Amino acid sequence: MAYGSYATIGFPAAAATIFGLHLLLTGKGETFNVGAFLEETSPYSWATLGVGLCLGLSVLGAGWGIFLTGASIIGGGVRAPRIRTKNLISIVFCEVVAIYGVIMSIVFVQKLSPPSANISLYTPSNYFTGFALFWGGLTVGLCNLFCGIAVGMTGSTAAIADAADGTLF
């Protein structure tokens, strides 16, 4: 690792630690209140952030997998041109990861409904829906991110192995 990466991680961590100790030791520890932040943030903000993470991370994972597989197919295709069309199924599988993220985002958006004029925005039901959609979207997005990378690495390995030995597939 380069020294720059230690500075980019270490400096913000040290600054946050110093700031937290300053608040704690000067008697202003209640200034940093996570519970108040969670209660004051709109449930719709949490829900839309979850939907955005679901879609964004899914597409990022699919793109990363397509990059890994595509680079290997192009590189292996120089040596063995027959693998170019044969190994496109790995790219299709990576695209399926993105499509699944789009479908789940649509399902999550359907769970949102605008609040009526006579009902408060900050109800327990709205909080539950907002937090559930946030964590659901984050979970689906991260799973699709790692799935896209795994499918890309598997497709890359299959393309390189097929280029090296045509009797495998």
Outline the biggest β-sheet: none
The averaged pLDDT comes out at 87
Q: Which segments are poorly predicted (pLDDT under 50) over 5 or more consecutive residues?
A: none
Backbone shape: flat
| Distance N to C terminus | 39 Å
Tally of strands: 0
Helix run count? 6
Following the backbone from N to C, one meets helices and strands in this order, namely HHHHHH
Give the structural class: mainly alpha
Radius of gyration (Å): 23 Å
The helix content, as a percent range, equals: over 70%
* Estimated share of beta-strand residues: under 5%
Structure description:
- With 169 residues, the protein is an all-alpha fold.
- It has helices at 3-25, 34-40, 43-79, 83-86, 88-110, 124-164.
- The longest helix has 41 residues, at 124-164.
- 30% of the residues are buried.
Keyword list:
single chain; mainly alpha; 169 residues; 6 helices
What's this, in brief?
The chain is mostly helical and 169 residues long.
SSE inventory with pairings:
Blueprint: H1 3-25, H2 34-40, H3 43-79, H4 83-86, H5 88-110, H6 124-164
Helix pairs in contact: 3-5, 3-6, 5-6
